[in-house]
Design goal:
Length: 438
């Protein structure tokens, strides 16, 4: 069933690097073995519901541009069913293994929370039925705790405890649906968990509320036997001026403070990383070092604008180094690469939506193959090992393991007349080496 939405009718397949075909994969070959694992299982791509099927093409200065058939007037649940048809047709055509959604993406808000929850469950049943025969699985579900005006001053961090309670009731419904659909993860992005001004904000209280909220989610996960990961998605600002889940480092500090560092990981988004003044690679490497690397929202921010442009990731060299770091960290496990990315508002043709995914899937697959060469060749890793080799010596290990006091260390330096000589960091050499794999 295509609903006549796309011109493309056949599942998009790998046709090789030189195919002139617009809707064929040039690099993404799902069954190809990469470092002993299928390409599909390394990358675990997901199509997101919100940008691809909900966003109508608005920007702050202009209205809807896409005018999709399910975005017009009509019975909201009928439109939601139509949207689900096209969404699943998209997953089928792209041959992706996963999708992601917010509750409010898939079903309309009702007059009461009970009605909203029922609407979400009704579309959840449509998904479950389709998933009996389709290949696609759920990478993660999440609750939209930021669009409705009740959440304008935050959800968990709202000064009104009834808003906290309402948000908790909404999360319970989506967490349970995610569990029933066999979701691999559950994501919390604190879209309004932050503040506009400290003049009206009790920061300590709000952090305690957020800590408690997250703990209830973790407790409920165990209660219902959900074995997916709970993930926080860091973002520094937008929509609020300052968001509590600023970046990976801030989230880790927050998890430690509330004793949740073993229960919650992070979902890192490229555009959020650069909004925080970091690189995507920095956020990946730090999360891996702290043991909280969970999943990726793959997209691309514009380096000149200070907002979340959410473009499809197409920069192969940048992706290659990022994927290299993920491979070195042991891969994403239950996580995946979720296309939290939107086409530009002028990309009106339905098949533009397919091609955006095809292009970015190819960019990631190409990058994965480059990263494989980097791993197989091993020179980058050797250079790194060499740089720290001194720490593997007996004395380096003794200092690191706490077997030397400040007195011991000082006595050895003075006694042996130690005079360390600086060594080159070889950055340009390494940059050339990186380029040699592209
Ligand atoms: C917003 C964002 C969200 C989360 C899910 O910037 O990235 O779409 O990924 O709520
Ligand atoms: Co995101």
């Amino acid at each position: 069933m295509t609903n006549g939405f796309y011109r493309q009718q056949d599942v998009i397949r790998y046709s090789g690097e030189h195919t002139p075909d617009r809707l064929s994969y040039r690099w993404y070959d799902p069954d190809r073995a990469v470092l002993g694992q299928r390409m599909e299982d390394h990358l675990r791509f997901a199509v997101c519901y919100w940008h691809s099927f909900v966003w109508p093409g608005t920007d702050p200065f202009g209205g809807d541009t896409f005018l999709r058939p399910w975005q017009g007037a009509g019975d909201p649940m009928e439109l939601a069913r139509h949207k689900a048809e096209v969404a699943f047709e998209t997953f089928r055509l792209l041959d992706v293994p996963f999708f992601t959604f917010h509750d409010r993406d898939i079903a309309p808000e009702g007059a009461t929370l009970a009605e909203s929850n029922r609407n979400v469950r009704e579309i959840g049943e449509v998904f479950a039925k389709k998933m009996e025969t389709d290949k696609v699985r759920l990478l993660w579900g999440t609750a939209n705790l930021f669009s409705h005006r009740r959440y304008m001053a935050g959800a968990a961090t709202n000064p009104d405890p009834e808003v906290f309670a309402y948000a908790a009731a909404q999360v319970k419904n989506v967490l349970e649906l995610t569990h029933e659909l066999g979701g691999a993860n559950y994501v919390l992005w604190g879209g309004r968990e932050g503040y506009e001004t400290l003049l009206n904000t009790d920061l300590k209280r709000e952090l305690d509320q957020l800590g408690r909220f997250l703990s209830t989610v973790v407790e409920h996960k165990s209660k219902i036997g959900f074995d997916g990961q709970i993930l926080i998605e860091p973002k520094p600002q937008e929509p609020t001026k300052h968001q509590y889940d600023y970046d990976v480092a801030t989230v880790y500090g927050f998890l430690k403070a509330y004793g949740l560092e073993n229960d919650v990981k992070v979902n890192i988004e490229q555009n959020h990383a650069i909004l925080a003044g970091h690189s995507f690679e920095h956020e990946i490497e730090l999360a891996a070092a702290l043991g909280i690397l969970g999943s990726i929202d793959i997209n691309r921010g514009d380096y000149q604008s200070g907002w979340d442009t959410d473009q499809f990731a197409m920069n192969v060299p940048e992706l290659a180094f990022s994927i290299y770091l993920i491979l070195k960290a042991g891969g994403l496990g239950q996580g995946g690469f979720n296309f939290d990315a939107k086409i530009r508002r002028q990309s009106l043709d339905p098949d533009d939506l397919l091609e955006a995914h095809v292009g970015s899937i190819d960019a990631c697959a190409h990058a994965l193959l480059i990263a494989e060469r980097m791993i197989d060749d091993g020179r980058l890793e050797d250079e790194l090992k060499q740089r720290y080799a001194g720490w593997d010596d007996a004395e380096g290990q003794a200092m690191l393991n706490g077997e030397r006091t400040l007195d011991d260390v000082a006595a050895r330096v003075l006694g042996d007349e130690i005079d360390p000589q600086p060594r080159s960091g070889r950055q340009e050499h390494l940059e050339r080496l990186l380029n040699s794999y592209l």
